[in-house]
C-alpha cells in the first residue's frame, strides 16, 4: 500500500514537472564539471560502480512482475549480464543494455539479458542516477542526462578494458535508446567506441504535451525556477530535458543526430504511450534504419512501456544486431498492455 502511494506521488510529480515547461536550465553543451571521472550524478546504493549487485533475478516475460521484483530487491542483477570475464566471439562486440527513464536495469532488461547471453554474446548493463527518494532506487536514469552520459562513458570503458574489444554495441530503451547514448557519443568520446546503436522507442526529438509545451517554452523565469528546483530536488532533470523543444534536445540534435562510422537502428511503435507523436522516435537521416514494428507484424500492438518484453521486437533487435544469424519474425497477436 505504501509503495502504491509512493508510486502515485511520483507520477503526480512527474506530470507536474512535465507541465511546467522545458526552459528550466539554459544548457550550452555539457557543464565543464561533468566528466566521466566525476559525472556528478546520484549513485545507486545497491549498484556499486553502476553494477547491479543484489540477488540475481529471474528472467521475466512481462513488465509488471519485473517492476514488482525490482522494487522489492533494489539493484537486482539482470540474468545473463555483467560477466567481466566474458570474451566476445569473433565478429561480435560486447553489448551494453541502456535503461530508460524511471527504469532500472532489471525492469528494462530481464527479458533481453539471458536471451542475448544464450546467443553467445557478452552482455552488460548498469544502474545510475535514480530518484533521490530512498524507496525509489528502482526508478533509475532520472537525473541529469549529461551526468548519466558521463557515467556511461566510464562504464563502457570498463567493459572495453575487461573484454579487450575496441567498440561496443548499444541497445537502449526510451531515453536509453536516444538522448542518453547520443549524448555519450557526442560529448564523451562514444563516437570512437560505439559500433551500433539500436534504439527502442527512443525519445530522440522528445515528447509533446498536445502542443502545450510550445506555450511553456515561452514562460518566464518563475516557472523555470520552480521547475529547476523540483527536478533537482528529486533528481529528475531528465524529464524536462526530454520534452519536445527543450534546450537540451536542441543542443543535442544541432548539427545532426548521427555520427560517421556508427550504425543506427530505430524501432518505433505507432501505439507509443510516452513519446508523442510516435514519429519523434525516428531519425530522418541517411543511413539510419528506421523500423516501425507494425510494419513487421500488423498484429503487434506493443506500447512504449512494454516493448522490451515483446518477443517480436526482440527478434527484430537481434536481426539488426547479428544480421548473419537473422531469422524471420514469427508474427502473433501482442496486446496493448
TrEMBL record:
Its EC number is 3.1.1.3. Residues 1-28 form the signal peptide. GO terms for biological process: lipid catabolic process. Residues 28-49 are annotated as: Disordered. It comes from the Bacteria. Pfam families: Lipase_2. Keywords: Hydrolase, Signal. GO terms for molecular function: triacylglycerol lipase activity. This is Extracellular esterase estB. The gene is estB_3.
Amino acid at each position: 500500500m505504501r509503495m502504491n502511494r509512493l508510486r502515485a506521488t511520483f507520477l503526480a510529480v512527474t506530470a507536474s514537472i512535465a507541465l511546467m515547461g522545458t526552459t528550466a536550465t539554459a544548457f550550452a553543451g555539457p557543464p565543464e564539471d561533468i566528466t566521466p571521472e566525476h559525472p556528478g550524478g546520484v549513485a545507486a546504493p545497491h549498484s556499486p560502480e553502476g553494477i547491479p549487485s543484489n540477488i540475481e533475478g529471474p528472467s521475466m516475460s512481462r513488465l509488471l512482475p519485473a517492476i514488482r521484483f525490482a522494487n522489492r530487491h533494489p539493484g537486482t542483477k539482470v540474468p545473463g549480464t555483467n560477466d567481466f570475464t566474458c570474451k566476445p566471439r569473433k565478429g561480435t562486440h560486447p553489448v551494453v543494455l541502456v535503461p530508460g527513464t524511471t527504469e532500472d536495469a532489471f525492469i528494462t532488461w530481464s527479458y533481453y539479458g539471458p536471451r542475448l547471453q544464450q546467443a553467445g554474446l557478452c552482455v552488460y548493463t548498469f544502474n545510475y542516477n535514480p530518484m533521490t527518494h530512498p524507496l525509489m532506487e528502482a526508478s533509475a536514469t532520472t537525473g541529469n542526462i549529461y551526468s548519466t552520459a558521463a557515467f556511461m562513458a566510464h562504464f563502457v570503458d570498463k567493459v572495453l578494458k575487461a573484454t579487450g574489444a575496441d567498440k561496443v554495441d548499444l541497445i537502449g530503451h526510451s531515453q536509453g535508446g536516444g538522448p542518453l547514448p547520443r549524448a555519450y557519443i557526442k560529448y564523451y568520446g562514444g563516437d570512437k567506441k560505439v559500433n551500433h546503436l539500436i534504439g527502442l522507442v527512443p525519445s530522440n526529438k522528445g515528447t509533446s504535451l498536445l502542443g502545450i509545451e510550445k506555450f511553456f517554452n515561452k514562460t518566464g523565469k518563475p516557472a523555470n525556477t520552480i521547475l529547476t528546483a523540483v527536478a533537482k530536488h528529486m533528481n529528475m532533470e531528465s524529464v524536462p530535458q526530454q520534452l519536445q523543444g527543450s534546450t537540451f534536445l536542441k543542443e543535442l540534435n544541432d548539427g545532426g543526430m548521427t555520427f560517421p562510422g556508427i550504425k543506427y537502428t530505430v524501432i518505433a511503435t505507432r501505439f507509443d504511450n510516452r513519446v508523442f507523436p510516435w514519429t519523434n522516435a525516428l531519425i530522418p537521416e541517411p543511413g539510419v534504419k528506421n523500423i516501425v514494428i507494425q510494419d513487421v507484424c500488423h498484429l503487434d500492438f506493443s506500447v512504449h512501456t512494454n516493448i522490451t518484453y515483446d518477443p517480436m521486437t526482440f527478434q527484430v533487435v537481434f536481426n539488426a544486431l547479428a544480421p548473419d544469424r537473422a531469422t524471420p519474425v514469427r508474427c502473433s497477436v501482442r496486446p496493448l498492455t
